[in-house]
């Protein structure tokens, strides 16, 4: 019989290196109490030699997006007096050592090829742009958003909630990007939380219109992570391998309307509550479920999106579970307004406290 005082087995070499990278990272900033746990940087917005306008205007580009969505959300909140600019938390950029916590060296090296980045973001003209420009104008904003997602987990645990006005790149896994997702910010923020926040039970609620195949592959058979994914089964990514790693999936049909959607969400959250007791929730709150979104193909009203977010925040608050929200997909100009209105509603319902409420 082994002695009860025997030392625990050492961590595998790869896991040990991961922990070292996490512990030496500078992304977990100390945030003064005068700031609100709303994370954003002007660097989130993408201004790419006019290509962001081309994306919306030409059939050459298969992935429409509003490259200024993140900034417009914050401008709505600040201009209308709900939040002060000085109270917003600005994250650091995730550096290579941070990204290697999840990503392989080979994958990160592949992003030095503009053609590879173009295929990931589904914008073919990007392949013609020198890679140093792609790094500065496209991948740097993404890396800032990754830093925001990682920091948001720390803030959520400290304050009870946090919103990264960006992130939610749920199609990217450790070794493969896709669907406009070049870095696996969800997987990264969770790995940081395991080590730095001493979290061992984490729930992902993924309500983007698309299946979150990236984080599903990264946490395949990892009992510490429970995944609730509610998505349109008739659209990208059709990742049948990743589906087997979803703990609780709710597959929707194209054209699903608001009332049915919210009813299914209520049932899913009830089941989730009985199956798993997390210490932290990562909420991927894509607005591509909106009626008219060219990629989501669902028919959820703006009011339905606002109610959806309220239900998730209330689910977390009723159980006293810290929650971080990522804004994820949403490909119409109206998305920014709906997200801002949802954040305002969360404040009005006392589910969060914005800057205007702190004075």
TrEMBL record:
Keyword Hydrolase: yes
Record-level GO cellular component terms: histone deacetylase complex
Obligatory cofactor(s): Zn(2+)
Keywords: Chromatin regulator, Hydrolase, Nucleus, Repressor, Transcription, Transcription regulation
Gene3D superfamilies tied to this protein: Histone deacetylase domain
Entries under InterPro entries matching the protein: HDAC_classIV, HDACs, His_deacetylse_dom, His_deacetylse_dom_sf, Ureohydrolase_dom_sf
Subcellular localization(s) per the UniProt record: Nucleus
Record-level Gene Ontology MF annotations: histone deacetylase activity, hydrolytic mechanism
Gene Ontology biological process terms from the UniProt entry: epigenetic regulation of gene expression
Enzyme Commission numbers on file: 3.5.1.98
A Pfam family matched in the record: Hist_deacetyl
Reaction(s) the record says it catalyses: N(6)-acetyl-L-lysyl-[histone] + H2O = L-lysyl-[histone] + acetate
Main location: nucleus
Domain Histone deacetylase span(s) in chain numbering: 63-344
Functional summary from the UniProt entry: Responsible for the deacetylation of lysine residues on the N-terminal part of the core histones (H2A, H2B, H3 and H4). Histone deacetylation gives a tag for epigenetic repression and plays an important role in transcriptional regulation, cell cycle progression and developmental events. Histone deacetylases act via the formation of large multiprotein complexes.
UniProt-listed PANTHER family: HISTONE DEACETYLASE 11, HISTONE DEACETYLASE HDAC1-RELATED
Protein name, per record: histone deacetylase
């Amino acid at each position: 019989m082994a002695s009860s005082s025997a030392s625990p087995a050492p961590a595998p070499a790869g896991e040990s290196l991961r922990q070292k990278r996490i512990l030496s990272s500078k992304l977990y900033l100390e945030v003064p109490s005068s700031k609100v746990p709303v994370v954003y940087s002007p660097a989130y917005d993408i201004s790419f030699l006019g290509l962001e306008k081309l994306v919306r205007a030409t059939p050459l580009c298969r992935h429409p997006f509003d490259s200024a969505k993140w900034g417009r959300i914050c401008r709505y909140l600040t201009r209308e007096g709900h939040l002060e600019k000085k109270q917003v938390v600005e994250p650091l950029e995730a550096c290579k050592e941070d990204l290697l916590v999840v990503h392989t060296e080979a994958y990160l090296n592949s992003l030095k090829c503009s053609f590879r980045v173009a295929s990931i973001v589904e914008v073919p003209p990007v392949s013609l742009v020198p890679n140093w420009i792609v790094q500065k104008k496209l991948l740097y904003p993404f890396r800032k958003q990754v830093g925001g997602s990682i920091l948001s987990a720390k803030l959520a645990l400290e304050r009870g909630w946090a919103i990264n006005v960006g992130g939610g790149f749920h199609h990217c896994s450790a070794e493969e990007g896709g669907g406009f997702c070049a870095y696996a910010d969800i997987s990264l923020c969770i790995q940081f939380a395991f080590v730095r926040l001493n979290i061992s039970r984490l729930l992902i609620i993924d309500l983007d219109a698309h299946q979150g195949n990236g984080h599903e592959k990264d946490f395949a058979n990892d009992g510490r992570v429970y995944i609730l994914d509610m998505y349109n089964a008739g659209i990208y990514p059709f990742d049948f391998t990743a589906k087997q790693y979803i703990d609780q999936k709710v597959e929707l049909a194209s054209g699903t309307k608001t009332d049915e959607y919210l009813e299914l969400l209520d049932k899913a959250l009830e089941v989730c509550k009985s199956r798993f007791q997390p210490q932290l929730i990562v909420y991927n709150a894509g607005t591509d479920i909106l009626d008219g979104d060219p990629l989501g193909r669902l028919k959820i009203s703006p009011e339905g999106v606002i109610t959806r977010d309220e239900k998730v925040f209330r689910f977390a608050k009723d159980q006293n579970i810290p929650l971080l929200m990522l804004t994820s997909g949403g490909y119409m100009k109206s998305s920014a307004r709906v997200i801002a209105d949802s954040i305002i509603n969360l404040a009005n319902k006392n589910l969060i406290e914005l800057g205007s409420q702190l004075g």
